[in-house]
Amino acid sequence: MAQNKIEKSEEDWKSVLTPEQYHVLRQKGTERPFSGNLYYNKEKGIYTCAACGQELFSSDTKFESGTGWPSFYDVISSDRVRLHEDNSYFMKRIEVVCSRCGSHLGHVFEDGPEPTGQRYCINSVSLGFTKEEDTGKEKE
Fold it and tell me: Where does Zn(2+) bind?
């Protein structure tokens, strides 16, 4: 279940986000491809919204799309994101925003792998990452 909504003024967002995060998350910017630190991340864990911390994606659904941005074929739960039509830059796309704080995450396309056929193409700077803790148990 999605967490309670967070509402802040743009000045409040500016005070808690880096300039690059603010540009992407609040002004719907896009980071340069292959520049984000989480694009190359191969660790197991949970990807969260960088603005509010809501859990969004599992590393189990991350895949290499070759686009230069972290790509996932599914969200943790459909109530974690909202989808909006985006016709900017003379393109027809579907924007993905965090359902908790309304921050821009990226876009979703219908060219992903099975089982969903979707590719959530997400700006690395829009994400946080919580590494899966090693439980010390041996795999069976």
Answer: 49, 52, 98, 101
pTM (two decimals): 0.89
Active-site pick, 50, 97, 108, 121:
121
Other Cβ atoms less than 10 A from the Cβ of 103: the count is 24
Please check if 49 is assigned to a binding site: yes
Beta-bridge partner residues of 71: 63, 121
**98 labeled part of a ligand binding site:** yes
pLDDT exceeds cutoff 70 at 125: yes
Greater confidence (71 vs 4) lies with 71
The Cα–Cα gap between 21 and 126 comes to: 6
State which residues form the domain around 103: 33-130
CATH of the domain at 81: 2.170.150.20
39 is in an annotated binding site: no
Q: From start to end of the chain, where are the E strands?
A: 45-49, 55-58, 62-63, 71-72, 81-86, 93-98, 104-109, 119-122, 127-131
* CA–CA separation, 92 and 42 (whole Å): 31
Does residue 117 form part of some domain?
A: yes
